Amino acid sequence: MTSLTLYFTPGTCAQAVRIALEEAQAPYTLVRVDFASQQQRSPGYLAVNPKGRVPALVTEHGTLTETPALLAYVAQRFADARLAPADPFGFARLQEFHSYLASTVHIAHAHRPRASRWADEPEAQAAMQRKVPANMTECFTLIERHYLGDGPWVLGEQYSVADGYLFTVAGWLKSDGVDIAQFPKVHAHSQRMAQRPAVQRALA
After folding, report:
1. Predicted confidence band at 1 (pLDDT cuts at 50, 70, 90)?
2. Main-chain dihedrals φ then ψ at residue 64, nearest 5 degrees
3. I need a labelling partner for 162 at 20 to 30 A (CA). Which of 22, 46, 101, 146 fits?
């Protein structure tokens, strides 16, 4: 099978895709993009992903970007790993959760380290950054109450690519000034995830 190439940066949502690839036991090559040196803005990387962001996954059919798309691709390409529901409703629930993380939670977080995307004035940036703990708390309160039920995983009894995504985003809470312990289900989920061999390999 043709190897995949994942462009990633530690601490970003690309970690979720790396976890999925490890869980699927997929053959892949890892290329680290160094944000500190602005490598994501280099002509070489912009040729891979014109958005100048990670993750990007190079396949034999072309390059894919955006974490929800990459997670769906890995789950469907390596279907034997059972990383996503096979039924349409279950798969749509998975996509619903991914969409919420990408469109709402990630944006709430990004207002702290990336405030300059939304405003030029220092006082406006500072105001957005002050709001991040409250916004992230609101997001994770909803995840705790609405998305995490009695099962060990996001989708209940079935482990899925959504679990690596939640684990990754929940890992941002501390830097956003939010104590994960106030969300017992999210906290327990993160602890379970940290014990999985595929997650340990992805974090190594």
Report:
1. low
2. -110, 145
3. 46
The per-residue pLDDT for 115 is 85
User: For residue 104, which of 148, 77, 141 has the smallest C-alpha distance?
Assistant: 141
CA distance 17 to 171: 15
- The number of beta carbons lying within 10 Å of the beta carbon of residue 146 is 10
> Per-residue pLDDT tens for 35-49?
788 878 888 889 888
Q: Which two tokens stand for residue 48?
A: 């891979």
Q: What is the amino acid identity at position 186? A: V
- Cβ count near 145 (within 10 Å): 11
Q: Enumerate the β-bridge partners of residue 5.
A: 29, 58
3-state DSSP assignment of residue 140: helix
Specify the pairing of strand 4-8 against strand 56-59: antiparallel
Q: How far is CA 108 from the centre of its chain?
A: 14
Sheet containing strand 4-8, edge to edge, reads 28-32, 4-8, 56-59, 62-65
Residue 65 DSSP SS3: strand
What ranges in the chain are assigned the alpha helix state H?
A: 14-23, 43-48, 67-77, 88-100, 106-110, 122-142, 161-170, 184-194, 197-203
Check: CB of residue 94 under 8 Å from CB of residue 85. Answer: yes
* pLDDT tens digits, one per residue of 153-194: 999 999 999 999 999 999 999 999 999 999 999 999 999 999
